[in-house]
Write a structure and sequence with these properties.
Shape: elongated
Structural class: alpha/beta
Radius of gyration: 22 Å
Oligomer: single chain
Number of helices: 14
Order of helices and strands: HEHEHHEHEHEHEHEHEHEHEHHH
CATH superfamily of the largest domain: Glycogen Phosphorylase B
CATH class of the largest domain: Alpha Beta
Largest sheet: 6 strands, parallel
Length: about 300
């Protein structure tokens, strides 16, 4: 993924002017230690500060090297949220503290009510991938699995929504092996993304790791789709094994092909898993998540004011 860093020599004055003018009751930072705007505001804040941590991965040289320098900033946080157990485990390695787990959320209604693309509802099984085309999203393993699936004479179509640095490589893989019915549709507006979810029969998330949560899984659930996903920390906190979908060994095209084959041949199974996901998605509606966040705001403020 690509992050955006904001740099300005006028930070200090601009931040101070905004804080003095607005007199916020509380400031909520997402990844508060990422340069440069977040740390500048947190350092200047004289109100209640809450931080949310999203990241998950292996060893982080930047956090390891910067943990002493950022200790003062960490001390200015009155409340800490992690979006999952995986995210909490990751940040706690460098900044030990009490982290409240409050998950990411999803807008249920737009996914539930989206209209499919009629040309895609032609009786062919539609397998959907949505994500940035980079190594850690694992599309190469899905392409290999899909290739195996087609060799078993399954009438399927793979729809790839997203853009990224590996697009040319993936297109070349499909072309050189003459894999049929793989559609790279690129980056699409939200309305079209909703329609691709509505057009799909199965959603596949083959990420190789470094996922703290899996918002895209919630979107698939909200759309009522059964899921085939990698069995990684961030995903198994969202998908219950063999309930809303299958969790399979990461980087294993055979495992992806086998799970997709099961779903391809069993419409009732697809329906059952899709409905289980739709029900579970309501637990992550933004209304419920917002209620948890606001309740935590009050809890933190009450502790500060005691």
């Amino acid at each position: 993924s690509v992050g955006t860093l904001t740099i300005s020599p006028r930070y200090a004055a601009q931040v101070r002017d905004v804080l003095d003018a607005e007199r916020f009751d509380l400031l909520h930072f997402h990844e508060p230690f990422v340069p440069f705007l977040g740390p500048a505001v947190l350092n200047a804040s004289d109100t209640v500060n809450v931080g949310t941590f999203h990241a998950f991965g292996g060893f982080s040289p930047s956090y390891w090297l910067g943990r002493r320098a950022a200790a003062g900033l960490a001390g200015r946080l009155h409340g800490r949220i992690a979006v999952s157990g995986a995210a909490r485990h990751f940040i706690s390695r460098y900044f030990p503290a009490d982290y409240r787990i409050i998950p990411n959320g999803v807008e249920i209604e737009p996914f539930a009510s989206a209209a499919p693309f009629e040309e895609l509802r032609d009786g062919t099984l539609n397998i959907l991938f949505v994500g940035r085309l980079e190594d850690r999203k694992g599309l190469t393993y899905l392409l290999r699995g899909y290739h195996r699936l087609r060799k078993r004479h399954v009438d399927a179509r793979l729809i790839v929504v997203g853009a990224g640095p590996r697009l040319r490589e993936y297109r070349r893989y499909v072309a050189t092996r003459r894999i049929r019915d793989v559609e790279f549709v690129g980056h699409v507006p939200l309305e079209d993304k909703l329609r691709y979810f509505a057009s799909a029969d199965v959603f596949c998330a083959p990420s190789t790791g470094q996922e703290s949560f899996g918002i895209v899984l919630l979107e698939a659930m909200a759309a009522g789709l059964p899921i085939v996903a990698s069995d990684i920390h961030g995903y198994k906190n969202v998908v219950s094994r063999d309930v809303e979908g299958y969790l399979v060994e990461p980087r294993n095209p055979r495992a992806f092909a086998a799970a997709l084959y099961k779903l391809a041949g069993d419409p009732e199974l697809r329906h059952r898993m899709g409905e289980a996901g739709r029900a579970k998605a309501t637990e992550y509606s933004w209304q419920r998540v917002t209620e948890q966040v606001v309740a935590y705001y009050h809890e933190v403020r009450d502790q500060i004011l005691v």
